[in-house]
Amino acid sequence: RLLAEQMAALRQAAAAGARIASGSDAGAFGVPHGRGWITEWNLLECALGPSGREAAAQGNQTIQERFQRT
């Protein structure tokens, strides 16, 4: 039930124009590095369809540009 609610909230945020970015809890107990990120990408695609990965890629790019070290 929690996952369904989170996916619905993600769809609602994307529909409202929110920037979506990926991340992971890699290093947290039970979240292996690498696999957690792949799982997140797959869940984004489940929630948003094929546009989920593109939305996250655009959000990630925005974050990288905004927080680029000079």
Brief rundown of the structure:
With 70 residues, the protein is an all-alpha fold.
Task: Write structural notes for this entry.
This protein has 70 residues and is mainly α. It contains three helices and no strands. Helix 2 crosses helix 3. The N and C termini lie far apart (44 Å).
Topology overview:
Layout: H1 2-15, H2 35-48, H3 51-66
Helix pairs in contact: 1-2, 2-3
The whole-angstrom Rg is 13 Å
Largest sheet composition: none
**What is the end-to-end distance?**
44 Å
Mean pLDDT: 83
Low-confidence stretches: none
Structural class: mainly alpha
Shape assignment: globular
Task: Label this structure with key terms.
3 helices; 70 residues; single chain; mainly alpha; globular
